[in-house]
Amino acid sequence: MSLEKPDLSDSTAFITGTTRGIGKSLALSLAEQGCNIVSTGKTSENNSYGDDKGLEGTIEQTARECEAKGVEALPIELNVRDEEVVQNAVDQAVDHFGEVNVLINNASAIQPANVEDLPAKRFDLLTDVNVRGAYITSRAFIPHLREASADSWILTNAPPVRTDRKTGGSAYAWSKMGMSFVTLSMAGELAGDDIGCNSFWPVTAIDTRATRHFGMGTEDDWRSPEIVSDTVLEMLNRDPAEFTGNAVYDEDFLIEAGITDFSQYNLTEGDPHPMSATMVDPDYERPEALR
C-alpha cells in the first residue's frame, strides 16, 4: 500500500538545514506536493562555509531543485544559534510569502562521544544548535503561525524522551531529546491555537553525510531520507488541532498509515538494525509487523 500524500498547494514551509540529507529530502518531498519552500542553512553560494568544510550542496541549489517541481522557493542563509539572525530570517520569509504555516526544525549538530572526549565547547555547540536553535526558531514563528489561514505546524526532527542515559553519546542525545521536550511542551501551550506540535525520529540510522562521516555503521544499517520525508508528509495529512503533542518513530507511524513494505527505503536487502531508536530508547522493540 502506498502513502496517501497531502495536497500542500496552499502551504509554505520554513525548513532549517536543507542543504543535504534529511533536510533536503524534506524540502523536495514537500515541494513535490505543491508546498512553497524556505530553504535555510549555513552553506550558501554567497559564502565559503561549504568550501572551507568540504561540504556539498547549498541552500540555493535546494531552492532551485524545489522550483523545478513548480513551487516558489526562497533561500535564506541562517545560523540557528543567533537569535537576531533567526528573527530576521523569519521576518524575511513572512514578508516574501505573506504567510508561512509550517516550521520544520531539522538543523542539528552531531558528535557522538564520551564525556571525557567531548570538549565543553562542543557540548555548547550541540546544545546551541539543537535544543536552543529549535527553541528560538519556534518562538519566533509562534505569532505568525497563530495568524496563518492554512493548517499550522511546528515539527521537529528529534526522538521520544524515553531514557535517562546514553553511554558514549550523552551530549548529543541530551540535545536531541531537548528538542522534543520543547516541541511537545509547546503542544500544550498552543493547544488553543490549533498549531500541531510534534516530533519525528527514524528507527534506523539514515544515509546522510554525518552518518557516513562518523562511521555509524554501513549501508546495511541505513535507510534513505525518504522514510523521514514520508513520515512528515503523513503528519501534514492530519488535523493539527487533533494531532499534536506526539513523538513518533517513523516505522510505527507509517505502519499505522498503512505502509507494510519498507524495502523501498532500504539501501540493501533486509531490514536495518534499529540503531537510532535504541540510541535513545534501549528497550525499543519494533512493531509486530516488522518482527
Automatic annotation (TrEMBL):
Pfam families with a match to the protein in the record: adh_short
Membrane-crossing residue ranges in chain numbering: none
Coiled-coil portions: none
Signal peptide interval: none
CDD domains xrefs: DHRS1_HSDL2-like_SDR_c
Region (Disordered): 267-291
Domain of life (superkingdom): Archaea
Cross-referenced NCBIfam families: PRK08278.1
Name used for this protein in its record: Short chain dehydrogenase
Species in which this protein is naturally found: Haloglomus irregulare
